[in-house]
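Human: Can I borrow your eye for a moment on a structure tokenisation matter? Separate attempts, laid side by side, tell us more than any discussion would. Could you pick a protein and write out its sequence and tokenised fold? No explanation is needed for now; the record alone will do.

Assistant:
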Amino acid sequence: MRTTIALAVITLSLSALPAGAQQREAAARVAAHSGYAYHWSTQGSVLVLSRPGIVVVLRPGSQVYQVNDHTEVADAAPSYSRGDLYVTPALAGHLEALARRFSPAAAHSAEILSTDAPAHGSITMEARQLQGAEAIDIEGSAPASAPVTITLLAVVSSDIPTIVVSRHDIVTDVNGRFGAIIPIASAYERGTVLRVVATSSPGVASATAQVVMAAPNNGVTVPLEQLPH
């Protein structure tokens, strides 16, 4: 009798789970299989998967997620457990398909490096607000002649998911240096946390930097502003 009751409880518990929740895949495994860089936000509430040509932003408990500059809807919301995000097989398969579909820089680098050894190493990067402009000045290094994708993410509130602002594809010079001026449009709100993510080919470790945006000429005394109105 006890065995029958126990089996009935298990059956009812499983049937109460949403479709696809009984079989989940770890996002870390999906990322490793598809060549994504795997990065949790500093708040630990947003997971960013990135590789040349694509950035995916996932949030535990939300079916809506971002792919580059647009949103998509998963069949079921990812769940957080044991330090990782777990997704349905359908979402895992879609993430793998996205990695193959959105990688123009990776395809270009593969063509260039077809007769050379794959790039290996890491990215170093510094980011600062550009004085007098609504933009960020970025400098860094990576393997020579390697493609680098700069993705700008905005954190505007603890209650709002991280926003993908823009993506920019550049290439390092023969010495492995790169630089770029990245406009912050449309993340103009003062105090916005802008996170800069630099990714390259799968063999190159990514880098992140963070800037809290102030007024373009913050700290500058403008006599015109001191005149009585």
